[in-house]
Recover the amino acids of this structure.
């Protein structure tokens, strides 16, 4: 098939030969470029998995902080209750 293209191009003139050379060059270059794009997409997909893992870890940390906040609020409430009880027992002198 390549020989047919070359013989037809030569029969049609220099511009046809130059066009065919340029076409073959572009097809080969496109194949290389497609290979690089595929590698890049694969690499980015792997990195996206890592980012998703980080997102999951951040969510877990947020949940832990919420639990700590709840415990802290309970401690604050208990401390306020204890202060009130101590004031009552001390006769309001504290």
């Amino acid at each position: 098939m390549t020989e047919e293209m070359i013989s037809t191009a030569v029969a049609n003139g220099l511009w046809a030969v130059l066009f065919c050379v340029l076409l073959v060059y572009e097809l080969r270059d496109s194949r290389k470029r497609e290979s690089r794009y595929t590698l890049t997409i694969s690499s980015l997909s792997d990195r996206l998995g890592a980012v998703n893992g980080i997102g999951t870890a951040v969510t877990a940390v947020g949940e832990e902080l919420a639990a700590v906040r709840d415990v802290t609020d309970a401690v604050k409430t208990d401390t306020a209750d204890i202060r009130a009880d101590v004031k009552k027992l001390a006769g309001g002198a504290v």
Residues 52 and 58 are 10 Å apart (CA to CA). The longest helix spans residues 14-90. The chain has a mean pLDDT of 87.
